[in-house]
Amino acid sequence: MGEALLKGALFSSPDLSIGVLEKNVDRTQLLQKSYPSIKPLDSYADLGTYEAIIIAVKPQQFAQASEQLRKGISTTTVIISIAAGITLSTIQEAFPACVCVRVMPNTPALIGKGMTGLSFGASCPTEIQAFVRSLFQSIGEITTIPETLMNALTAISGSGPAYFYHFIDAMATESMKLGFSYDEAKKLLTQTMLGSAIMLQQSDKSPTELIRQVTSPGGTTEAAMKILGASDLGLILNNTLHAANNRADELSRS
Asked: Whole-model pTM?
């Protein structure tokens, strides 16, 4: 995810000065090869010259990372955390003198098609909010939400790509029983999903109305939808979203 932000920021502002502090030397070398303009940093002390720091670590690593970061940043540094479940109050407690922002992007950001949720503290200046919005708009769509919804957004769009991939994998696997190869079915399904998503995005009709458009009485879609409608899909999705949301809540309390 850190690389997605790096790529997006450089695409929108090629002259932007970006430093990267990465423990994995091989990873640092790979990033430098892919993005020659970045500056690999040797220590946390090198962070003091940057206006904003993006903390792109796993939530379990946040406490350790923030402890080290405090040694190198100034009080004017903007702290942007993409660690799942780590609350604004926890971020602010770790960096009491800094303006802090909580963000949840998703992996399609790697191709500039991400969906990112932003939560700002009440005291976050307007100009900083504008800067953060601009940064994340470089990797896709954004929405600004109350922090009380951030764990739910994490469950929906943050983890959402995995649900989609799982569905496509299951559909492609079952399509092989109808005579297609896995790759052929994957192509059919991904383009169908892509086109349908764009159509839904651009339409003023609800999903239910669009289903009616493709469903003829006594036709193939009607036969399929009878099976799908009789399934426990709603219950499965309810349990799926709540599992992710509950885990984000657990990470918030840990």
From this structure: 0.88
